[in-house]
Amino acid sequence: MGQSRLLPSLLLVTFVAYVLPLAAGNDSLPQRRSMAIHEKRTNIPRHYARAGDADLDAVMKFRIGLKSRDVTGLEKALYDVSVPGSPNYGQHLTANEVRNYMSASAESMSAVAEWLSEHEITDIDPSSTAGNWLSFSAPVSKANELFDTTFHSFVHKRTNEVTIRTLEYSIPRDLAHHIAVVHPTVSFGTSSVRSSVSSIARSDVQARDETIDPSCNNTITPKCLQDLYGIPTTPATQSSNQIAVPGLIDFFAQFSDLKSFLEEFRPDIPSNTTFAVETLDEGRNLQGPDKGATEANLDIQYTVGLATGVPVTFVSVGNDTTDGALGFLDVVEYLLNKTSPPQVMSMSYAFDEANISPALAQRICDTYMALGARGVTLVFGSGDAGVGDALFQNDTCFEFNPPFPGGCPFITSVGGTTNINPEVAAQLSTGGFSNVFPRPAYQDPFVLPYLDALGNIYEGRFNASGRGYPDVAAQALNVKIINNGNETFINGTSASGPIFASMVALVNDRLAQAGKPPLGFLNPFLYSHPEIFTDITSGNNPGCGTPGFNATEGWDPISGLGTPQFAKLLAAAGISDEA
Length: 579
Known about the structure:
Layout: E1 14-15, E2 35-40, E3 48-53, E4 58-66, H1 71-82, H2 95-102, H3 106-118, E5 133-139, H4 140-146, E6 152-156, E7 162-165, E8 168-172, E9 179-183, E10 194-195, H5 222-229, E11 243-247, H6 255-265, E12 276-280, H7 294-304, E13 312-317, H8 328-336, E14 344-347, E15 349-352, H9 358-373, E16 377-381, E17 403-404, E18 412-418, E19 424-425, E20 432-438, H10 444-454, E21 466-469, E22 472-475, E23 479-483, E24 486-490, H11 493-513, H12 523-528, E25 533-534, E26 563-564, H13 566-572
């Protein structure tokens, strides 16, 4: 989402000699099981080109996602604790309760491990916090045999990075009810993760509201956002209420830049206010004048700098990931396994939905659902490519290009706006409809009227029955940060996400003060209270040679329900505003 992105290799491939023991005779060979295609893609993703067969000796790390015991029951439990008015509203699940839904059965573990053992695979690892994965390594030659396929090398057209994948794979028919997904196989998008931020020269806009500093049309600072959305400066008081900010692809948040940011833009709070750091997958948070990344600094500065007094933790995910999804699963499983997970997670990274398989997308989305059931609000910037393609913005395309995880119904997607009162939907604001996830019931009263008004203008370009995104919006252009000691302006929904996440965290602080649970999975609450939002009725998000969708009265796929007002958000949560 955006033009600034690093694309490190996801595959941990080494080249070694792999020698299988010689069979003593045909009787020692496993009986060939009846195989069936489990996942298949008809086309190579358009950002990739085939580069020949993969090296047969290249060793790949695989993960087999086993089917969970009762993911349907978990979804029911999630809505039971997340829909306002439900008898169990706010009674979020414990880690053990979620695990009981998400873990695989012992039968599934045993059956799949037996199949792998039949093929002389000995490094089978069943360890995972969710209890529904098996990991192992195998050379390409063995993987070809195991999955009845041929793995190829593919080169990314923009980065020249080589990835080993296949276009289809098979599993034994008798294991189909045990296996949900195998990765890496047909998913390509995890080698092109991107952040939704770009450093772009700001544009001047005429001021429209005399009650807010006119400079806010050209420079967004915490003060602008406090005035525009009514965000309080009163410090939070509940140390148990926290925000997690994941950092991927070696993007590091700088303590010195945060200090400078607070000195300039939040002089009312101590400049030594800082953030905690937790790491996984060999993650780091290197410090130095050349180590800062605009994404990480933006995320930290607009959570620490807006959610006054709320503890913020930067979770740095390294390159030694175990999930086959560049840490997307690792980080949420890490948070899911905590006894007391943070109440809000703000994340600004995405894949192209078309580049990862529906099965892998569903598995990640299910894990978001599990974290939501624990009482965590998951906030993602919607993206910076309108309805088009963030990677090749001048490329022609017919079908609109939804990102993942924007289409997952269990996260809150935040689009972008610009200007002040009236705010206008930003052209970069990615919005549309998922091709993988169906529209959730909580959206029907809002999305169906939009689709009726839209008519058939973009027929065939998007999935009208898909989950619509974004859900809400916030300022995304001309956002000022400090990066490597220098002031810079940022455009992107990477700003919108932390802004909204900070508001949610401040509401959670008031709820905790009143002895009430956090908001948790937010969308049923948001769509039950449209009065929270200032409707955005102008702007569009062009792409694929079209003007894109228009912002209009009510929900729209560029600004969602609109931009939030803190006092109304607080009131909807049942707390009077005493700030």
